[in-house]
């Protein structure tokens, strides 16, 4: 029962021991991983098995929760009260002025030819006295299609999020990733109409991912661009599949960070972010998820003139998600992180509004 899993996680938290509790997109099951001690483990080369939590900055270490104890339970949807809507939240004048200013600066740099795209973000602090586990349950109720999680390590902190973006999925040698960018508000009963700006910024991400993977995989295929709903927003998405051989580490290093969260070309965009954002993204726009999990797959093999034979195979699977629509808890405070892609056609005020809409994904479940 979910209640039992939540109780175990609560106990883990009161002992200040590391854990993660999560549900994958469109899935029923809630999983929890509990670490039996407070040791801080780091990933060396992605050949490890466990739950990873990686920061935006590739020079900082990626954390690994070993699979000391794994729990799971089915999630049943409940009717819960909704939180505040975006219009009811106060817009902070200073934050807005700063964000609009750095977006203007970014557009100027694009004009000079320093880069074609940069993703600029900000953080927002709000008071939050609710229990993290209660907020996690609200997240599960609200965002069926997202990867919803609550992660804790006493030496690092506590993070929570509902992300729509896959960094990569592998099952033995097959790989799936996605190019997700471009944002529009979701309006009930309406399909989004995409402009040149969004199509162009998403195309850049697709192109970058294809290039980044080119010498590391075979048989790259990509889907048509499609509209994908994420909470109160729409994004543009292309699915990309390929085959790889024993080089997961080099693939992860090639993909993270994509221009969906950093920019293109990578280095000048990253330098600009470092200079102008004026805060540490920490784990926002990093990635998290299952690394090298063993999956038992049941199959039925039909053989001519013989009875159907069922057999089981073990697959190695990795599922990593980009840490978006997320927040960090500290005492009775929550820090929400949001950003958006800037291109030559960006309008600074609209970019600010986009971050307000994105922050609402999380603020909606923490404020009541
Ligand atoms: C950077 C964020 O989202 C990313 C940026 C998007 C955009 O610029 O339109 C859309 C989806 C994400 O790839 C965020 O949610 O903070």
UniProtKB/TrEMBL annotation:
<dbReference type="InterPro" id="IPR005801">
    <property type="entry name" value="ADC_synthase"/>
</dbReference>
<dbReference type="Pfam" id="PF00425">
    <property type="entry name" value="Chorismate_bind"/>
</dbReference>
<dbReference type="InterPro" id="IPR015890">
    <property type="entry name" value="Chorismate_C"/>
</dbReference>
<protein>
    <submittedName>
        <fullName>Isochorismate synthase</fullName>
    </submittedName>
</protein>
<feature type="domain" description="Chorismate-utilising enzyme C-terminal">
    <location>
        <begin position="96"/>
        <end position="297"/>
    </location>
</feature>
<feature type="domain" description="Chorismate-utilising enzyme C-terminal">
    <location>
        <begin position="315"/>
        <end position="358"/>
    </location>
</feature>
């Amino acid at each position: 029962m979910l209640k039992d899993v939540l109780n175990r996680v609560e106990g883990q938290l009161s002992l200040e021991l590391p854990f993660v509790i999560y549900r994958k997109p469109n899935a029923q099951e809630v999983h929890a991983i509990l670490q039996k001690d407070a040791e801080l483990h780091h990933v060396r080369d992605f050949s490890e098995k466990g739950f990873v939590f990686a920061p935006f900055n590739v020079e900082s270490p990626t954390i690994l929760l070993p699979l000391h104890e794994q729990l799971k339970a089915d999630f049943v949807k409940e009717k819960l009260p909704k939180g505040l809507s975006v219009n009811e939240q106060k817009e902070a004048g200073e934050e807005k002025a700063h964000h609009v200013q750095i977006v203007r600066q970014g557009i100027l740099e694009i004009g000079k030819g320093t880069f074609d795209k940069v993703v600029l973000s900000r953080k927002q602090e709000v008071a939050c006295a609710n229990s993290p586990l209660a907020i996690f349950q609200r997240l599960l109720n609200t965002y069926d299609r997202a990867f919803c999680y609550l992660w804790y390590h006493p030496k690092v902190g506590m993070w929570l999020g509902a992300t729509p973006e896959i960094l990569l999925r592998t099952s033995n040698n097959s790989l799936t990733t996605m190019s997700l960018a471009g944002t529009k508000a979701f309006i009930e009963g309406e399909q989004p109409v995409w402009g040149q700006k969004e199509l162009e910024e998403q195309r850049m991400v697709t192109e970058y991912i294809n290039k980044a993977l080119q010498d590391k995989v075979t048989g790259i295929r990509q889907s048509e661009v499609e509209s994908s709903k994420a909470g109160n927003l729409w994004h543009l998405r292309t699915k990309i599949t390929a085959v790889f051989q024993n080089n997961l580490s080099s693939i992860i290093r090639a993909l993270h960070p994509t221009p969906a969260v950093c920019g293109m070309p990578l280095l000048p965009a990253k330098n600009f972010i470092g200079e102008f954002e004026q805060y540490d993204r920490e784990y926002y726009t990093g990635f998290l998820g299952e690394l090298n999990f063993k999956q038992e797959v049941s199959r039925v093999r039909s053989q001519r003139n013989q009875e159907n034979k069922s057999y089981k195979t073990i697959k190695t699977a990795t599922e990593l998600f980009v840490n978006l629509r997320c927040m960090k808890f500290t005492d009775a405070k929550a820090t929400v992180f949001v950003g958006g892609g800037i291109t030559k056609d960006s309008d600074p005020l609209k970019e600010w509004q986009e971050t307000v809409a994105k922050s609402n994904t999380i603020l909606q479940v923490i404020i009541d």
